[in-house]
Amino acid sequence: ARIAFGQRRKMLRRSLAGGSADAAAALGLGGERYGMDRSALARIAPGIGSDVPFCLVGGSAIVSGRGEVVESLDPLGGFALGVVVPPLELSTAAVFAAFDGLGPGDPPSIGGSALPPPLRDLGPLRNDLYRAAVSVAPGVADWRSELESRWGRPVAMSGSGSSLFAYFTDWDEAASACDDVPVGARLAIGCTLMDRGWAIER
């Protein structure tokens, strides 16, 4: 058996859950090997990492608690993402430590017609860690501002940084936008949503 991740590039410490996706796949494969059901794996996953429970399930979901409560949604579609990884190092621990001192402040948000239609009922989306991330690596704000200028749309930060993303109509539009990013980006790629986390192909 081999583990199928889908087409992706592993990016650790970029808030793209690269390490958590690998951990979820390894956990799922172990569960398959030893006859463990999904509920047993779901109990183990939070002890490995906060993003691992979601990576076990994948698809579209609302995640709450520390990451252990995953409410699956009907698959979302009809839009794509442009994702850019700036040449910045951000430690998750450092960002959360900064957040403890600063709080969320008034982070930038994306709402209304700037959101894809399937997301508009969720209201304005924001990342409460943005202010803390910028305090640790001010370049995050510079990259976000530059991408907004080039792309003509709001840009948000993923997780605790440093990855940045924006919504586009489809993959072609996202991929085209990712051809126009500042020099030095570690990754710039158009992405579509997947309907699952990990899978085993036999």
* Strands ordered across the widest β-sheet: 7-8-4-9
* H/E element order: EHHHEEEHEEHHEEHEE
Our estimate of the beta-strand percent is 15-25%
Uncertain parts: 1-13
Look at the structure and give the mean pLDDT: 87
Q: What is the CATH-assigned architecture of the largest domain?
A: 2-Layer Sandwich
Assigned CATH class of the largest domain: Alpha Beta
The CATH homologous superfamily of the largest domain is termed GHMP kinase, C-terminal domain
* Gross morphology: globular
Question: How would you characterize this protein structure?
Answer:
- With 202 residues, the chain is of the alpha+beta class.
- It has two domains: 81 residues, Ribosomal Protein S5, domain 2; 112 residues, Alpha-Beta Plaits (2-Layer Sandwich).
- The protein is 36% helix and 18% strand.
- The strands form four sheets. Strands 7-8-4-9 form a four-stranded antiparallel beta sheet, with helices on one face.
- Helix 1 packs antiparallel against helix 2 and helix 4 crosses helix 5.
- The longest helix has 17 residues.
- The chain is globular and about 50 Å long.
- The termini are close together.
- The N terminus is likely disordered.
Short description:
The chain is an alpha+beta fold and 202 residues long.
